[in-house]
Design goal:
Blueprint (H helix, E strand, L loop, with lengths): L3 H10 L19 H18 L7 H4 L1 H13 L13 E3 L7 E13 L5 E11 L3 E3 L1 H12 L2 E2 L1 H16 L4 E9 H4 L10 E6 L6 H11 L6
Parallel strand pairs: 2-5
Antiparallel strand pairs: 1-4, 2-3, 3-6, 6-7
EC number: 3.5.4.16
Keywords: GTP-binding, Hydrolase, Metal-binding, Nucleotide-binding, One-carbon metabolism, Zinc
InterPro entries: GTP-CH-I_C/QueF, GTP-CH-I_N, GTP_CycHdrlase_I, GTP_CycHdrlase_I_CS, GTP_CycHdrlase_I_dom
Length: 223
C-alpha cells in the first residue's frame, strides 16, 4: 500500500497535474510583494545555512534577497492577476480569413513539482471570427501564463483559453515543445528528450486544419 508521501512523490516524479487551474489559496495576495520578498528571503537564507553554506561570504550575502525578488517579481510574477496583459483586439477590417500562426515563441516556465526550469517554444494560431489581436500580445499571453509554477499541459490549455476569450472564437490552437530540467538534470537525467503538448479548439479539431497548422510549425524545435 502506498503511503501519502510516496503517492505525492509518484505524482511529482511522473509530472502528473492534479488541477486544470494553478492551485492558489484564497489569501494568495493578502500581503504585498515587498512582504513576500522579506518572508522568502528568510526561507532561502535558512535553506542555504542548512546546506552548510557560509552566508558571510561576499558571493552569497545577497543571494537570499536576489532569489526572493526573482521569485516574486520575475519567474512567478504571472501568478499575480494585476500583471495580466491587456489582450486588446481590433476589427478585422482587411477581412483576412485564413490561419494566422505565431511560431517559436520562447517559453521560460518552472515545473511545479521540483521548481526547475521548463524551456522551450510555443506555436500559437487562430482563425479570425471578426477580431484580430496584436502579434506581441500573443507573446505576452504565453509569457504571463508561463511565469508561474506550471505543468506543460495546463500552460497549453491556458494560452488557448485566454485567446479564445479575447478573440471571441473557438478557432485557436497551441503546441508547446519544451525541455524539463527536472527530467534532463535529475532523476532519469535524459538530456535529449523534450515534451510536446497541444490544445486544439474549433476548426483546429478537424484533420485538415490541424494538419495545416502542424505543417506550418514542423516541430523542428532547437534548444
Amino acid at each position: 500500500m502506498i503511503n501519502n508521501e510516496e503517492f505525492q512523490d509518484e505524482i511529482g516524479n511522473n509530472h502528473i497535474s492534479t488541477s486544470a487551474k494553478n492551485p492558489l489559496r484564497e489569501d494568495a495576495f493578502a500581503i504585498s510583494d515587498e512582504e513576500k520578498i522579506e518572508k522568502i528571503k528568510k526561507d532561502v537564507q535558512n535553506i542555504l545555512i542548512t546546506l552548510g553554506m557560509d552566508l558571510t561570504d561576499d558571493s552569497l550575502k545577497g543571494t537570499p534577497n536576489r532569489v526572493a525578488k526573482m521569485f516574486v517579481k520575475e519567474i512567478f510574477g504571472g501568478l499575480n492577476p494585476a500583471k495580466k496583459p491587456n489582450a486588446s483586439t481590433f476589427d478585422n477590417n482587411y477581412k483576412y480569413g485564413e490561419m494566422l500562426v505565431e511560431k517559436n515563441i520562447i517559453v521560460y516556465s518552472t515545473c511545479e513539482h521540483h521548481l526547475l526550469p521548463i524551456i522551450g517554444r510555443a506555436h500559437v494560431a487562430y482563425i479570425s471570427n471578426g477580431r484580430v489581436i496584436g502579434l506581441s500580445k500573443m507573446n505576452r499571453i504565453v509569457e504571463y501564463y508561463a511565469k508561474r509554477p506550471q505543468v506543460q499541459e495546463r500552460l497549453t490549455m491556458q494560452i488557448v483559453q485566454e485567446l479564445q476569450m479575447a478573440l471571441g472564437t473557438e478557432d485557436v490552437a497551441c503546441v508547446i515543445d519544451a525541455k524539463h530540467l527536472c527530467v534532463n538534470s535529475r532523476g532519469i537525467s535524459d538530456i535529449e528528450s523534450s515534451t510536446v503538448t497541444s490544445e486544439f479548439g474549433g476548426k483546429f479539431k478537424t484533420d485538415q486544419t490541424r494538419r495545416e497548422f502542424l505543417d506550418y510549425i514542423k516541430l523542428e524545435t532547437k534548444f
